[in-house]
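Notes, p. 3: input format for complexes.
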Amino acid sequence: GSVWAGVPQAPPDGILGITEAFKADGDSRKLNLGVGAYRTEEGQPLVLSAVRQAEQRLVADGSRNKEYQPMGGDATFCQLSRRLAFGAECPASAAGRIATVQTLSGTGALRVGAEFLKKHYAVKVVYLPDPTWANHGNIFGNAAGLELRKYRYFDSQTRGLDYQGLLSDLGAAPEGAVVVLHACAHNPTGVDPTPEQWQGILRVVQQRRLLPFFDSAYQGFASGDLDKDAAALRMFTSAGLELLLAQSYAKNMGLYGERVGAISVVSHCADAAKRVHSQLCAVVRPMYSSPPIHGAAIVVKVLSDPQLFGLWRQELAGMSRRIQAMRTALKQALIEVRCPGNWDHITAQIGMFSYTGLTKAQCQNMTNKWHVYMTMDGRISMAGLSGARARYMAEAIKDSVL
Ligand code: PLP
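Output follows (402 residues plus pyridoxal-5'-phosphate):
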């Protein structure tokens, strides 16, 4: 017998499994609204022109080699990433109080951050919004072994933020607990706090001395404006808090498979930041030694060249606009086909996803009868929709809710 005879089959990943099922479906009307990746109006993946141009320059530069990076990655990349997130005027950054390390996209940033907390932070309790991106639980719970707790986030009645529930759950958190906050474009709900609500969240975080861990996977992708999407992070940093930030370039620069991201830890003094940096590197060393070169080099080119940076911002705004146009188109089509119910939340929500409010049985009908692939919690990726398919989608929703 095999030494692996006792290895059980791992449960399929809820999101990655949808793409497999979609590929296997032979129906020509099929629609994949499960993936968290941008698609053009024609349903194709998009490589941004700014990224293509950056790559061409990198290839043309014969002086580049393939040497290892340091454990923390490219220092210029880290500095530019910090500036992108915290802003050019951030006093904490200017004072050297932020330690940043290049990571394997946002997931890697969360993983390195969680491992750092496990080793060097006294309170082992992590609050996650309910619901949240499913991998948060895997990363903080299974992988880092921290104790997971939920805080109320989504109100299924209003299909908006359960603000009072959120405040009351965080208000009852043990002092010092870690709280994961989606910087913008909350996944899966598409519901974000207003600026006033962020102020209220900041107050309870200060009162309970909670440690915020921002997850920023959609900066610039949500509103089309890089600064606007960083407003909550900057509000908390300006208030003088110590916090963590996981950054991803997967969506906003379309670098999904290149795996480019960063973890930043804000400290009260530069001396602590230096020690924290050394410990972030110490987390990286036994995991994968050092991060890859190519994706980070693309980001450095795009962020440091004014022409490429301007082009990127235009393309970013374009992606965000198309997604918002799909929200409008879907809502309009639902009204046209006389689908029962109120669909205002489709346009009120922000970012790549919409939380439709469809039940599991309704989602199953969407997939089984209409070949529309989506997660069974009712989440659809607006980026997977096109103007040409909005009507079909509305018909499918109508049939499923009736
Ligand atoms: N955090 C959230 C909330 C996400 O939605 C995602 C991607 O879907 C990530 C983090 C990280 O993704 P990646 O590891 O591809 O950067």
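The pocket of pyridoxal-5'-phosphate is lined by residues 36, 105-107, 133, 182, 187, 215, 217, 248, 250, 256, 261 (CB under 6 Å).
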